[in-house]
Amino acid sequence: MDTYLKVLQKEMRPAMGCTEPAASALAGAKAAQLLDGRPTSLEVVTSRDMVKNAMGVGLPNCSLKGIQAAVALGASGGDVDKGLSILSELSDEQIQHASSMPVSLAIDSEVPSLYIKVVAKNEGGTSVAVISGEHDRFSYLEQHGQVLLSLAVDACGSSLQEEDEQFMGGSSLSDLLAWVQQAPQEALTLVLEAKDTNMAIAQHALEHSYGLSVGRIAAEPIGKKPSSLSEAFSLASAMAAAASDARMAGCPLPVIINSGSGNQGITLTVPLAVVGSYLACSEEKLARALLLSQLVGLALTAKKNRLSALCGAFTAAIGTACGLVYLLDGTLVEMDRAFNTMVGNLTGIICDGAKMTCALKIYSCVEAANLACKLAFRGMSPGNESGIVGKTSKESMDFLSRISHEGMEETDKTILSIMLGKQA
């Protein structure tokens, strides 16, 4: 199968609620599944980034929050077969049992950023489930002392998937655009279905109050039908923020994710859907713009850690900017400009966990993408004399990778220290 298509099919999946709590619930459910009977206690060992991204976000269909609650919900009757949609249905009995479940939590500074280990115990024995590398990838399973599965914790599930990540990380904007222009119908259908799913939660959030109501308030002066391209750009930012408002508050509607993140999936689809509708683009043109944005988002994720101190909404919005240029009949030249403008503008935006203010960051990032697009068509973008901006988008990608891996490690530690300090 075509490698780009295979990567898209693997990465673009539905998730209910924030993906770090969903992964935590999945690990809890698997550990419980390996026991004879329900667990009476749970031990969780995880990375600082998993704790950070689960601390302040609402869980779907209940009032509980945090990684320990998510693990307990999974262990109290979660269906492993539902994958990252494991929190889509919760019974009252499941919530009640999870609320009283003893769950200890330890942070391990030596594990990868995407890592969670759950040890489940009852009078019948002990089981262990580890998810790492990807949000639904089990890398270690143990039942009553017998090892059932043992994979490298910091790699993807197979050598082929590792090759996928290397492939995406080595792809240039030119490579991505060349594939998008001849992509098969199967790929077009995939992104159009993702657009419909993510627009549903965005439209829902314009009519209901969630979190800070960033999107709902930002959309009020425009209404649902923009009368100019400028208004379409503004509504695009507002609706993307609205979808995040709802998702971060635990709205029980699914989102199609990108790079393991619902907020990134929203950022890469909703703005293009809004602008494409205003422009009355053909379905095929919108689909190819969506494909380009998705692939740019995945390529940037392959250059950095999936969970890091670099905000994922920012890197996703670079893909959004390229997709907007495509919708407006721009070429690779304009896309390269827009890419570098985004790098010159928002590279310092940090990730301080999943919570209601993610909607603020998405709004700001999509607004920046709108501006980058406008500047690109005027022939404007920063040159490589500007800070970390490269001569080309490919060089800027490499610089972003260095910022993520070399420059943000201590920042990430400081962020979590502040967040945990507030709970002391």
Automatic annotation (TrEMBL):
GO molecular function terms noted in the UniProt entry: L-serine ammonia-lyase activity
Chain ranges of the Serine dehydratase-like alpha subunit domain: 82-416
Statement: the UniProt record of this protein carries the keyword Lyase: yes
InterPro entries associated with the record: Ser_deHydtase-like_asu, UPF0597
Keywords: Lyase
Origin superkingdom: Bacteria
Pfam families found in the cross-reference section: SDH_alpha
Keyword hit for Electron transport: no
Family affiliation: Belongs to the UPF0597 family.
HAMAP family: UPF0597
Protein name: UPF0597 protein MUG09_04985
UniProt organism field: Sphaerochaeta associata
